[in-house]
Specification:
By secondary structure, the chain is mainly beta. The chain is built from one helix and 66 strands.
Length: 713
């Protein structure tokens, strides 16, 4: 359900390549995929191609792969959240891909099916000299250029590194044309060369008052370098000498990278992203082209005439005439979405400002524009079956489509705008909160009658939830359920002395409530009684949605040190334990689910979905225990994470005196971890760990520690 956005606003072993080429692209950290924008919202900053196989890297751990020269892309789960600024191909092979940024570099020798970590730093964050660039002239030989010109070399494909002589004055890019011969360019306009594997460096050219940023080898003798201001250098003798080309008739800018299809045809990306500079005669003249309305930050060639660019908001374009004309890859429905509704495991809708309405019929992999004839914001939507959808606009206009949004019919229900609409049968429609109680239609919204049942007649209910054959309506302090097609209703008592933020029933008897304190409640008898479930490990819960009795999600505003991201906690055991998942680099606006498909809408209107409960990789277990506590004081908690590599960050949360607090523990190579925590009388503990490219996340059920008693789950 989308209760948060509606109700509150009203008041590395295997990095799996997921998604089909024409479908939603998997995000870098979990089993959620983006359908709008199709290639995801993360900015792409670098490209590398070997024939028709290309890779694109970018923000927030993004790595995409194409096997058809950029016509379509699939997402690779890296498990990383840092920006991957460089992607290169070792020995120019389509199978040997190396990607990195900051303090992390990963390599695959099977086209991205499996990766391993290049250990040039102790960990992926907090290193003294982050990656600037890299070059791998052969399968085994490679060089890493780090901050301040520091150099590392590998002779075994990245399994180990040795220090080499730093580049004098530092450098911005490195290009190796042989195992021991490399070139660098730097901020001072200097081109330097090594012929002994970075043991020594020789200046081969200097261009004062310039800053050089990128290098390219067009053929064995032709090399290019680009930089600022509008600097293009060319060597026609394999790098021994360089001349500056005269760049005219293009807008000013900082040239960051150059890629060539051959010695004559090259494309140059800019820091501003507002243009691509093009030459078709080896730099004798230049033109400016704009491939996309989005910024363009990366360029590549898959053949002498097949060109690819990528950039802001996951945009990608292709050209079959060396960059003269371009066509977009994928699709994106422009607009600001504010509401999300799941009709089935394949059909869902998203509506928003200026009457925009998007529809998916393939579980969120792709979306199409089915906007109704209104310029008003679509505030509410609901549907039934494959083709029927109702939309309620901000001005109170209610419309129905019987053909999936191809055409609409205006409906008349009166003058009081409802708080919510809910289709609960092929022709049965409920208008909820008008201003109290419910209006019901039995003929697809053609006519309405007020429901006179005492359980809902004067109730302040603002939202609805379908629970199998039942329907639940609810508000902050009232709820009711109907199991007979919304004709008869029973009042549902809510947790005492709590204000409900969100409510979701998986079946007519099993339901979950989230209160305004962030506490989770569970009922197994249709709401006749509730039990608090201290298993979330956080009070930052904002909304919840269950796909069935065991599988559900809770959207949270943060997890440990992760803030400002689109995060959910996921349960596979009916709420007994929860583990975190990253959906997006943007906060989530709402959640929805139907059947086996979960849907998510971010604050910037990106649309995500999952058909794998959001998980990726192999399952693993997490255990937590504590010995007897005879008196108040420090208790030692011990745990173990299965399939650990060592260094995993385990979040341990304590619930005491009505609030959660957290500490971080680091798993050893055998998965063991421990920490101490003070307990005065009683406390509940849970442990959770984020998933990575190899494994799902994991969480423990609550562990209750009581002074003077044995610990229990």
């Amino acid at each position: 359900m989308v209760y948060l956005s509606r109700f509150l606003c009203a008041a590395l072993l295997a990095l799996a390549v997921l998604s089909t080429a024409s479908a939603g692209v998997n995000n870098p950290q979990s089993g959620w995929y983006s359908g709008n924008p199709l290639l995801g919202p993360n900015t792409l900053g670098d490209l590398a191609c070997a024939g028709s196989t290309c890779y694109a890297s970018g923000q927030f751990g993004t790595l995409l792969k194409s096997t058809d020269a950029g016509a379509s892309w699939s997402g690779i789960v890296t498990g990383l959240t840092l920006n991957l600024t460089r992607v290169r191909l070792a020995d120019r092979s389509p199978d040997h891909v190396v990607v990195g940024g900051g303090c992390a570099v990963r390599r695959s020798d099977d086209g991205g099916d499996t990766f391993f970590r290049l250990p040039f730093t102790a960990r992926d964050t907090g290193c003294a000299a982050p990656l600037v660039s890299l070059s791998l002239p052969s399968d085994k030989t490679g060089y890493l250029l780090l901050a301040n010109g520091r150099m590392l070399a590998t002779a075994d494909g990245g399994h180990s590194f040795s220090r080499r002589t730093p580049v004098p004055g530092g450098a911005n890019d490195i290009l190796c044309v042989a195992d021991r011969t490399c070139f660098t360019v730097g901020a001072s306009g200097i081109v330097q060369q090594t012929t002994d594997g970075a043991v020594s460096w020789t200046q081969v050219a200097s261009f004062p008052n310039t800053s050089l940023l990128g290098l390219e080898r067009a053929d064995p003798l032709t090399l290019y370098a680009v930089g600022s201001p509008l600097v293009v250098l060319k060597s026609s003798d394999g790098g021994s000498s360089w001349t500056r080309k005269n760049v005219q008739n293009v807008p000013g800018g900082i040239l960051t990278s150059i890629r060539c299809g051959d010695a004559l045809n090259c494309l140059i990306a800019t820091e501003q992203g507002n243009q691509v500079v093009r030459t078709t005669n080896g730099g004798d003249s230049f033109t400016s082209v704009v491939p996309s309305p989005d910024p363009t930050f990366a360029v590549a060639f898959a053949s002498p005439i097949r060109a690819i660019v990528a950039g802001g908001a996951g945009s990608a374009e292709v050209s079959d005439d060396a960059g003269a004309s371009w066509s977009a890859v994928g699709s994106r429905i422009a607009g600001s979405f504010t509401t999300l509704g799941a009709i089935s495991d394949t059909v869902a809708y998203a509506g928003g400002l200026n009457g925009v309405l998007a529809r998916t019929t393939d579980s969120g992999q792709t979306w199409s524009n089915v906007s109704p004839p209104t310029e008003q914001t679509i505030d509410r939507l609901t549907g039934w079956g494959a083709d029927r959808v109702y939309v309620l606009a901000a001005d109170g206009t209610l419309q129905r489509s019987d053909n999936g949004g191809a055409s609409y019919r205006l409906l008349n229900y009166g003058t009081t705008i409802p708080a919510e609409i809910a289709a609960v049968g092929p022709d049965r429609l409920l208008l909820i909160g008008v201003p109290r109680g419910i209006l019901r239609s039995e003929n697809g919204g053609e006519t309405f009658q007020r429901v006179q049942d005492r359980a809902v007649r004067r109730a302040v209910v603002l939202a609805a939830d379908r629970a199998g054959g039942a329907v639940v309506v609810y508000g902050p302090r009232a709820a009711a359920i109907s199991a007979n097609g919304a004709t008869g209703w029973r009042k549902i008592p809510l947790p005492r002395k709590r204000v409900v933020r969100d409510l979701d029933f998986a079946t007519a008897r099993l339901g979950f409530a989230l209160d305004t304190r962030g506490s989770l409640w569970r009922t197994a008898n249709g709401g006749r009684s509730w039990r608090e479930v201290p298993s979330l490990g956080t009070s930052a819960a904002r909304s919840l949605r269950f796909e069935d009795a065991r599988n559900g999600y809770v959207a949270v505003s943060g997890f440990a040190r992760l803030r400002g991201l689109g995060l959910v906690l996921r349960t596979a055991d009916g709420g007994q334990s929860w583990h975190p998942q990253i959906v997006s680099r943007e906060r989530l606006f709402s959640l929805a689910a139907a059947g086996s498909t979960g849907y998510a809408l971010t604050v910037s209107s990106s649309l995500y979905a999952t058909r794998a409960h959001g998980d990726i990789g192999a399952p693993r277990s997490l255990r937590l225990s504590a010995g007897p506590v005879s008196r108040a004081g420090a208790v030692v908690l011990r745990g173990r994470l299965s399939a650990a590599a060592g260094g995993e960050e385990v979040v341990v949360a304590r619930y005491a005196n009505g609030r959660w607090t957290t500490k971080l523990a680091t798993a050893s190579s055998n998965g063991a971890f421990s920490l101490r925590w003070n307990v005065r009388r009683k406390a509940v503990f849970v442990a959770q760990v984020l998933g990575d490219a190899d494994h799902m996340g994991a969480g423990t059920p609550p562990l209750t520690v009581t002074v003077g008693a044995a610990s229990r789950r």
